[in-house]
Amino acid sequence: MSFLRNPRSLLEATKAPKQFRLMSQLGDLGSGAGKGGGGGGTIREAGGAFGKSEAAKEEEYFYKKQREQLLKLKDDLKNEIHFHEEQIKRHQDAINRHKQRVTQLDKE
Question: Which value, in Å, is the radius of gyration of the alpha carbons in the chain?
Fold first, then answer.
């Protein structure tokens, strides 16, 4: 409910996991176990250029995945807006029809 009153807190809440992930790392990604980048698998634990490139690919994958999810969310919201606008139009037409019937009944 606090998100409804303060949209900025919703924005901050969506940023929190990413900030936590970035702050929880002490070294470069893929720089090897014990150097702050390890624990992500044998390639990352080995470190070196290959570990760093794999870490970069992983980060890129999640960035693209998040971007796809945001685009899908935006598209879904646009579809929902269109649906509700159509519902408003249908309801307004029904109201007008009922008003016309009431005026016709008043004339009789």
Answer: 27
